[in-house]
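Hi everyone,

Forwarding the result from last night's run.
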Amino acid sequence: MPQNNHILNKRYARALLSLADENNILERSYMDMRKVCEVFAYNKELLIIMKSPMIRTAKKQNVLTHLFGKVLHPLILMYMTIIVRKQRGNMLEGIASAYLTVYKQYLGIEEVKLTTAFPLDDELRSKALTAAKKMTPHRIEFVEEVDPSIIGGFILNLGEKQYNASVKHRLQRFKKHLYQ
């Protein structure tokens, strides 16, 4: 994504955050924008429609209303249709993604992502969550990911830091050491 689009996405996201805060729907707006990100991730046709200059604005707005009308808060839907009306529909996915980041920064939430080779049981999840809370003074959003390719162990991402204790990583280091 070009740098200026990133800046614009953030600017639009901050405007929406301000609007959501004024209307006391901060948490709802976050959940709604997560839904928007998910829909864009799984529905590439929507992205094509929003980026196409051949599709009229009214049609794009109708698509948004049809997809999100009963799911999103009316204020969020209105904001998105205004973005489309201003010929910025191609930016909706980026704005939604930027919103999640801006929201977390605003509330002092740090994302903790734990990648394991298999799904965690409740006991391991609880231990991982407790350990993650000790690593940061911020509130955390705990995200689990299963990636069988790491073979075993785990990868912990905390903000900008990563701790890789996966079997795959250890094997790669061992292989590199053997060939030196």
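Residues 109-178 form one domain.

Cheers,
N.
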